[in-house]
Amino acid sequence: MKALVVYYSRTGNTREVATRIADELGCDIEEIHDTQKRTGILGFIKSGYQAARGKDTVLEPYEKDPYSYDLVIAGTPVWAGKPSVPISTYLKENRSKIKRVAFFCTYGGSGAEGTFRTMKEILGMEPIETVAITEKEIKEDKCDCKIEPFVRDVEEAFRE
């Protein structure tokens, strides 16, 4: 299985989970970079507003072609119950190149189900696996109990 973990992280939480997943799978990883500034409280407010309205953004060029991979594992923070604008944009730009997909998200309150549903709708395909990890689980270093089964299930689902 040739897999790619692709993610966007505004605060670093999603980056931490993405790195752990890629390390466990021994696969490639790519961080998506937005051309819009999203730092601070104003960035937080703008990001939630744009996500709630299904807006797109302009991404910096990415290096890895998702078509070259058997599986793309897309990771995003939850913004207003939706995937981040950069990940939504990435999925829209690459939906014809993604063969199989798995999703993960990080969040502080709620919205994981809506985030996964929106990602599935954008791609028009079911993910082979999903996992949602809270900010608290990341900060308390308790997310491995979710990452390890996710990685195992991804590997098993891919063999089927």
TrEMBL record:
PROSITE patterns: FLAVODOXIN (PS00201). Signal peptide: none annotated. GO terms for molecular function: electron transfer activity; FMN binding. This is Flavodoxin. InterPro entries: Flavodoxin/NO_synth, Flavodoxin_CS, Flavoprotein-like_sf. Coiled coil: none annotated. SUPFAM superfamilies: Flavoproteins. Residues 2-121 form the Flavodoxin-like domain. Pfam families: Flavodoxin_4. It comes from the Archaea. It comes from Methanothermobacter thermautotrophicus (Methanobacterium thermoformicicum). PANTHER family: EXPORTED PROTEIN-RELATED (PTHR39201), FLAVODOXIN-LIKE DOMAIN-CONTAINING PROTEIN (PTHR39201:SF1).
